[in-house]
Amino acid sequence: MPAALAHAQQPPPRGLELVTDQADAAMEILAIRRRGAVVPESAWARHFGSSGYRRLSAREAAMGRAFEDSTFRAFLLSDTLLARAGELERTLAAWRAVRLDAAAGRAKAYLPPATPLRARIYLLVKPRTNSFVFEPATDPAIMLYLDPARTAAQLQNTIAHELHHIGYAAACAEPDEEAGDSVLATARQWLGAFGEGVAMLAAAGGPEVHPHDVSPRQDRQRWDRDVANAAADLGRVERFLLDILDGRLADPDSLRARGMSFFGVQGPWYTVGWLMAATIERQHGRPALLAGLCDPVALLRRYNEAAAGSPGAALPRWSEVLLDRLSAGLPRG
């Protein structure tokens, strides 16, 4: 192992564990290749037996994606990856020193008091450039693509965002819905996707900090354009929810495809969700936001109230028709 990867690291907060075994094994393979030697089977065994690789394989299987050892071996043997070995080594060394306590603090600030944060955070050398949460309710994992282009501040933001998802799953377990209310239950469950917007707020550190304060300029510009389109996007999400409630989206595949389309790069689940959360905090304070965090229907109502009193340009609001339909059988609060 390169000496730069072996330096001491501050212990992570209780409940959080930084796991680098897959990245370490991948870097060992690249170091062997840089010497011009043949990679021994023992090095391959360490890589494919690493906990990071096993979790990544399980996640891809859960997503229905093809994932073969032979394909990953070809990726690690590619000249393109070998050319990036130096920058990957430096990035892995830097990421080992990430302040997990700071990221955890941002996430906890937007979760109900005493919400536990428990997760393994995997640093991964892999072909796909995405980072994501896996099994947040059972065996929480944050799977981070090792990206030399990502700054320390951006890494902190990403970890805080993903930790908020894990805390949300721990604090807001989905309630059992009444028998016969499967359509209503489905609509309510989709409201949980607005957690992406709350996670954006948490990762930034507050409503007065731009959600892409530490991002590249093009990401910030894209976000600003999309937030400016919030009224139309709120209307699109409302029609989606009403189509569920009215039975016009009975086909599960069509329903899922339409709901997933609101994720996009950072679509309405992010932008409208952030607008709601930020508006509630600005008008009524963070405790009011947290009080409704685990009740998305109440959160929509609280947002309408906050939007009504918000200064400046009029903010879009949810229709009372939708709110009453979503609230069927629930106490108002």
Tell me the helix content: 55-70%
How many domain regions?
2
What's the order of the H and E elements? EHHHHHHHEEEHHHHHHHHHH
Oligomeric state of the chains present here: single chain
Ranges with pLDDT <50 over ≥5 residues? 1-8
The total of beta strands comes to: 4
The number of helical segments is 17
Rg for CA atoms: 22 Å
**Strand order, biggest sheet?**
1-2-4-3
The geometry reads as elongated
Largest sheet geometry: 4 strands, mixed
Distance between the termini: 57 Å
Mean pLDDT reading: 92
Label the structural class: mainly alpha
Strand content: 5-15%
Supply database-style keywords:
4-stranded mixed sheet; mainly alpha; single chain; 333 residues; 17 helices; 4 strands
Folded structure, characterized:
A hairpin with a 6-residue loop joins strand 3 (132-134) and strand 4 (141-145). The chain has 17 helices and four strands. It folds into two domains: 3-171, no CATH class; 182-326, no CATH class. It is mainly alpha-helical and 333 residues long. Strands 1-2-4-3 form a four-stranded mixed beta sheet, sandwiched between helices.
